[in-house]
Write a structure and sequence with these properties.
Helix 5 runs antiparallel to helix 6. The chain has six helices and two strands, in the order H-E-E-H-H-H-H-H. It is 54% helix and 9% strand. Strand 1 and strand 2 form a beta hairpin. The N terminus is likely disordered. The protein has 228 residues and is mainly alpha-helical. A two-stranded antiparallel sheet has the order 1-2.
Length: 228
Amino acid sequence: MVLPQTSHTADQNLSLLGKSAQPRRLLLIFICIPVSPGNSRLIFISGRNFAVGIDRIVPRWTFHINQNLVIDSDLYLLHIEEKKLMEPGFSNWEKACFVPTKSDAKVVAFRKWLKKYSGGRIDWGNKFNESLPCTPPREQLMDRYWSHVVNCSSCNGAYKGLKALEVALQVFSVAAVAMVAATKQGIISVAARNTLAVAAVLCFVGSKWVAYFVYKNFHFHDYNHAFQ
């Protein structure tokens, strides 16, 4: 009875060893869903078989900030390219694109499929016409708040928390200045007055930094390919 038991344990150890020896893998899935002419909903999924415990410690909104940088790097170019594709017409998209490599095979196959079953265009029915909207200012086109933050529970919670911190720092800064100005000399020590003054300045600077961080990461962060 001992031999079969030992053999079974060895098989389990080999199985565990095989699992632990698996290479690290990172999977990125992008699902782009057209919702209206010139607008699409992007569903982004990132899966991995390593460092999975970090997701329980680091809040999701910190990852979303970095992921938005990747999206911003392509957003404006894709907006312009879509208008370029419209110029030769839906059926002549090849005139606007150069697809010579093997990696373009799936793009060509999709275009052929779309042309065969939908005339090379999305059938919006009577809901929309096929004309693209005018190009808005970059601040509106690349705005993160209405396109992501309001729909993301993690980013929305972080946004509200940081805005509350910004207001709290401003209130404390004003209150500290008011205390220094209203308190007569001699009631509190010079060291205490200096401490309040320094705290007021630090809170004011801190509130400005928080405001800048919120705007840059939750509203608009311009991306210029010439400087990247």
